[in-house]
Each structure stands twice: as C-alpha cells, then as structure tokens.
Write a structure and sequence with these properties.
By secondary structure, this protein is mostly beta strands. The chain has one domain: Glycosyl hydrolase domain, family 43 (Tachylectin-2, Chain A, 5 Propeller), CATH 2.115.10.20. Helix content is 6%, strand content 44%. The longest helix is centred in the N-terminal third of the chain and has 9 residues.
Length: 314
Amino acid sequence: MAVLNKGNVKTCEQLLEEFQADSQPVHAEKIVFTGVGEKDVYNICAPFEDEGELVIAGRVESRDSEHSNVYFFVERNGEWVPRENSPVLELQDPFFTTIAGELIVGGVQIFPHPINKGQLGWRTVFYKGQSIADLQEFAKGPDGMKDLRLVELKDGSIGVLTRPQGEKGGRGKIGWTRISSLAELTLDVINEAPLLENQFIDEEWGGANEPHLLKNGLVGVLGHVASFDEDGNRHYYPMVFALDSETGEVSDMKLIATRSNFLPGPSKRPDLEDVVFSGGLVRKSDGSADIYAGISDAEAQKITIVDPFLPYEK
C-alpha cells in the first residue's frame, strides 16, 4: 500500500488559496425535488442503485425548523419525487454504503438534550438491509457525534471514521479505526478511535462525509472543513484526502469546490450562505466526478469536477 506523506495542518484560508490557484469545477446544476409540499430538500447523498433503480436520499424539512425526515427519491421526467412505498426515516443528513453485500443507510437523529433544557442532542444511527424496503436499525453512535462513516476494505474488514467533539475533538476532528464485522461497531470502539494527525487547527473543524475504497487499497475520503468568520457566519468547504487504512497516515487535505462554484440560491439563515455540505461523489469513467451537495442548508445541487481521487491511485 502506498505510504502517504504526513503533511502540515492547513487553515481554511490556506486551502482556499491553493484551490483558487487551480482549475475550477464546471457544470453546476440544481437538483429539482417535488412532492414534499413547501419543504426544502438538501444535504442529499449521491444516487445509488436499489432494486434496479437510482435513488437519492435527502433531508426534508421546513425552512424554519431543524426537525427533518429523510425521504428516498427517484427521478421522474427530470424531477426527483418521493419513491412510493419507501420508508421515511426521522433523520438528518443521510448517507449510504455497502458492506458484505448489504445496504447500509445512516443519518443524524436529534433528541431533547438530557442536560441542557430546551436544546437538542444528536447521534448517528445506522440501518441495514438487502434493500431500502427492509432496512432495520442495527447500531447507534455516541451522543453528540455526527459524521460517523463506514467503509468496507479490501480484506473484508471495515474502516470506521469518527468525529468526536469536546474534550477529545474540540470543535470536531476525524478519527479512524478498523473492525472485523458490524457486530464490533460499539460505542467503546467508536469513542476510542485515535484521531488522524495534522488535519484541523483548533479554531476550525471538519468531518468525513463519504469514504471510497480506491484501487490501491487506500481510502479516499470526501469530507468537509469548516470555520467561523468574525461575524459568526459559517463557512463549509468540500474537501478530500487519502488515508492509509493500515497506518492511519493521511495525505494533505485539498478543497474541491466552494459555494461560488454552484448556482445562486436561497439560504436557511444569513449565517449559512457559504455552506456546501458534500453529500456524495460519483466517480466516472472519463476521469471526471459529480459532487452531490447540500447548498446553504436550503437546496441541493450537483457539480462536475476532475476526479479528485485519481492522483491517490497513481
């Protein structure tokens, strides 16, 4: 397996400078969702095949609320509509993967905070099944942890990307560990996963959104890096890096898009205008890739870029 050079931690500002000096993404387009009334659909995953049909899972919620549901959508005449007879999950920010031939779907579950009255807590919840129709919940992550992701590795073991906050992770850092089966996905294993080194300064944060097993056995991670500005506005940027599953070593992060590469559109709140939530990435045979993203916590778009994982496979 390739050995990755441990890089230096870079700030959002430095990553932005590097990105702007490179060739820019092309072909932004809005993804049109209908059939959910006046609600927004955002923070979608990439399309995946289920029972012979392409499906997108999306976060559906009212503009003035954080209480969302995840719907499964299928394309009909250029628009994505809720798929008939599919479950609706009481989650935010859906994601999917396949492990041992089974579909794994997850998302963020919110609940009344056990200590801070009037506030919400959150955790990542996982479902599995042969198809969307028979998904059953099988695991929960620790309270307070989003961006928990799984990837099946070459030897059949499972990589686990974590994102603790607080004492261990500050505003949010990425951890990594391996398990031999889904039965080993316990709270202790998740909480004890070592943090990846040299990724985020303490004032900024990030997380993994979608890991990809690359041809050479490295894990290509689509994620986000984020910061606050002086006015308290949030800035979220889609990024990628490569991870050596044996050693936990990582490449430098690289931004792959910014809000300005996407089409103009609404924002849930003024402080969320510069938010791109990298939901998923589809690698294509021509060397390009499509990023599917939530934009400004209010809508969904996709954009075409040069496949950012190709350099890691060389």
